[in-house]
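Now for one specimen:
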Amino acid sequence: MQYVDTPLFGVGISILAYTLSSYIAKRVRIKILNPLLLTMIFIVSLLLLFNIDYDVYNKGGHLITFFLGPATVVLAVPLYKQIHLLKANFFPILIGILSGSIAGILSIFVLGRILGLDLILISSLIPKSTTTPIAMEISTLLGGNSSLTVTFVVITGLSGYIIGEKVLEVFKIKDPIARGIALGTSAHALGTAKAMEMGEVEGAMSSLSIGLAGIVTVFLVPVLLWIIEII
């Protein structure tokens, strides 16, 4: 057990759990059994079964979290391939991302206050539609719990991955640009994974939405802090 209290343990079980989860997901082919969700279940179960403290796991786990930022930047590649679409539809795309980001943030804040949720919980929920590195920083700045925020981010992404395409079909949204923006703005990286399955244009627009939605949310944080202080 001498290797448990080292970064190697956290990195090792994360890689093994994800590899096993990916294999199961490919064999079973049930949308809700996403590799990310299965990986979380495997790791949490392992820690509870062997009574291993989360901080021990996180010595290596935080290294994986660190690389989420650079991994997000890689999503710019499909966007570059579709740069002509961005130039031709710049303002509609920008308005769509702004509207989606603002609606997502305000809906959480308003519903949270109506339902009487704790302020920490509301602050943890607000950045749920942004990618994990950005969401954690925003949550900390708002006074939320970053661990809770990561959970909400994952749930949001999984929801977008599982039902996002069906929602678009129900509302008869067929334009590939609009579909990509909707998935990227509401469900970040996992939404983008689904968008890339739908098509290259959808994937490119969704990749763009992740970055811009994060930037919009960051700029709205001071406003949210002011609102929270006066309410």
User: Anything to note?
Assistant: Residues 108 and 167 are 19 Å apart (CA to CA). The mean pLDDT is 84. Residues 200-230 form the longest helix (31 residues). DSSP finds twelve helices and no strands in the chain.
